[in-house]
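Methods — Computational structure assignment.
A single polypeptide chain was analysed. Its primary sequence is given first, followed by the predicted tertiary structure written as structure tokens.
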Amino acid sequence: MAYDKPYEDKPNSGTFFANKTKTNPKAPDYRGKILLDLSTFDIVNGTINVDLAGWKTTSKSGLTYLQIKAQKPRDQQAQPQQTKSEELDDDIEF
């Protein structure tokens, strides 16, 4: 079964491919891009914190690349609300 659908950038994901045109030791080993949906992140003073994760993958043409995913840092993601009984159960010694 042939795969006819062209590659489409997905929000908060991207790719890194080995830099085949590296001409000096200071050049990057990998190059890539990421499409960020800024509405999913907290922007503070013009900056955002982003957690990245990566998976080593092989393309249909046989190229090995790193697929990346971006998300809000874990400490900034929505925390479940505590119930009143959980708030009062705080192990304070009397």
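Note: The chain has a mean pLDDT of 81.
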